[in-house]
Design a protein that fits this description.
about 500 residues, mainly alpha, Serine Threonine Protein Phosphatase 5, Tetratricopeptide repeat, Rossmann fold, 2 domains, 23 helices, about 55% helix, globular
Length: about 500
């Protein structure tokens, strides 16, 4: 703080740090962030303030930014707190090896620290490395059990997940129920545990209990969803992105064929398609990268409905579309191995953005993932999505509406865009991989490689609800999953679906 006496500057720093910490301790994340962003630039570069800023962004789900700030903090103060932020955020981003490296660094400072064990074990579990995760956490669990002491909440969560993966389903449900009985359960933690119970009960074929647990989980923070409003919103999107209007929209000059996008409903096989492509030596996957969705938000904020295109996009004319497209290409190239020719992004909102994607990347390819609406609805209902972002996932009848509108959007894109769009039906994908896998690779303009059949052998971490499924060999049991819940969904009207219609 230029011009301020050192003693006064130190006093302001101490006051700011104390205030930020108090807000964070009370879970007042937005207020903590407001204080940080109002600090002088020089004070925001203070290593401890950088750490607190990183912690605030971690809690806000802004993990890449948190990683950057925490790494800068570590350079200034060689302390374990920002290192833990780095370990947690790299875990959340699916950067398994980086998360484990930061766990190593923290453990050197805090030998035997249980928090590190939870992060390490959870990171390995989410990477599909279940035996390694168990080896990390079992000694901690046994230490508590030998004392007759209750497992801490974080350990109960991670150990319950491993019990499910180890098919010790009765033990998993018993531990989950014990955890749910704790008085200090935050709603978010309770939601996670109830969804985990639904998964365990589903796998032990106790479908009634699975449904009950999922219903209880979805009642936590449920946001009302109006199907008629959603349908009207889709109608407006289709009207605004008509073939006639799009001819006057800005178009990027990006010539790259690198970007590929998977669109469709969640739980429709998008992660499986991503893994198949990523297993090809000339292709890679970047998971659910939100870069394009962020561009769409900026575009929407600048949009003026009273003006005709292209003026309605304000400052976002062709040059800015080209810049955004080229920046995206450079960013995904850095995330993939050299020589890769196709990189796939399977962000959940892609089905709404296909028109914009086609204008950003005129040489892109789109893969449309499709699955039985009944199976999608049940998988979403059981899955534990963000209720605020995807409110329709909390009721199967709402998911049915969302499925129908997604199909409507994709039909519109196929009828109005020049970019190629390939339909991939989940049921056909798992029933006939010898035909369907090569069909996907051929669509990308690549030569077939048998390594695509071994997608499950990748040590890549998949940061989706399907992480523990795509790390297993191909299986067919999820096709027709709705039959297990036939009585519970009997009153719901679903769109007619036949994966083999027209073939």
């Amino acid at each position: 703080m230029q011009g301020v006496p050192p003693q006064q500057a130190q006093s302001k720093r101490a006051s700011a740090v104390s205030s930020i910490r108090q807000h964070l301790s009370r879970q007042e994340n937005a207020e903590a962030l407001r204080i940080i962003e109002g600090l002088p630039v020089k004070l925001r570069q203070d290593p401890e303030v950088l750490f607190l800023h990183a912690l605030t962004l971690e809690r806000a789900g802004r993990w890449p930014e948190a990683v950057d700030l925490a790494a800068r903090s570590v350079k200034g103060i060689d302390r374990h707190e920002p290192m833990l932020v780095l370990a947690r955020c790299h875990r959340l981003l699916g950067n398994t090896e980086q998360a484990l490296l930061w766990c190593d660094r923290v453990e050197k400072k805090l030998p035997g620290d249980e928090t590190v064990a939870y992060i390490r074990g959870g990171t390995l579990e989410e990477a599909g490395r279940f035996e390694e995760a168990t080896a990390v956490l079992r000694p901690v669990v046994e230490r508590y059990e030998s004392k007759g002491a209750e497992l801490p909440l974080g350990l109960q969560l991670e150990w319950s997940k491993l019990l499910v993966q180890d098919k010790r389903l009765d033990d998993a449900v018993a531990l989950i129920d014990k955890t749910l009985a704790r008085k200090e359960m935050f709603p978010a933690a309770k939601n996670i545990m109830l969804h985990l119970k639904a998964k365990a009960c589903d796998r032990k074929k106790d479908f009634a209990s699975a449904w009950e647990a999922a219903e209880q989980a979805n009642e936590i923070g449920r946001v009302e969803f109006d199907p008629s409003i959603y349908e009207a919103q889709v109608s407006m999107l289709i009207e605004n992105w008509s073939r006639e209007r799009m001819t006057t929209f800005p178009i990027s000059g990006c010539e790259s064929e690198l970007p590929v996008f998977v669109a469709g409903m969640p739980r429709s096989g998008t992660s499986l398609i991503d893994q198949i492509i990523d297993a090809h030596p000339k292709a890679a996957g970047v998971g659910e990268l939100a870069t394009i969705e962020n561009f769409a938000h900026r575009l929407s904020a600048a949009y003026d409905p009273d003006l005709e295109p292209p003026e309605c996009f304000g400052p976002f004319q062709a040059s800015k579309w080209t810049k955004a497209a080229n920046e995206y290409v450079r960013a995904i190239q850095k995330m993939a191995d050299p020589g890769v020719e196709r990189i796939v992004n399977k962000a959940l909102g892609n089905n709404k953005l296909v028109g914009m994607i086609a204008r950003l990347f005129p040489k892109t390819r789109i893969i449309h993932a499709i699955r039985d609406p009944r199976d999608v609805a049940i998988s979403c209902f059981m899955g534990g999505f963000n209720n605020r972002l995807h409110p329709w996932t909390t009721r199967v009848e709402w998911a049915s509406t969302a499925w129908a509108q997604s199909m409507r959007m994709m039909a519109h894109w196929k009828a109005t865009l020049d970019v190629p769009i390939l339909d991939v039906h989940y049921e056909r994908l798992v029933a006939d991989p010898e035909r369907e896998f090569p069909r996907i690779i051929d669509f990308l303009g690549l030569e077939w490689d048998d390594r695509c059949f071994e997608f499950h052998k990748s040590r890549r971490t998949v940061r989706t609800l399907s992480y523990d499924q795509v790390n297993r060999p191909l299986y067919k049991s999820s096709a027709g999953r709705h039959s297990n819940y036939a009585e519970l969904i009997a009153g719901v009207e679903f769109p007619v679906y036949d994966p083999y219609a027209g073939n």
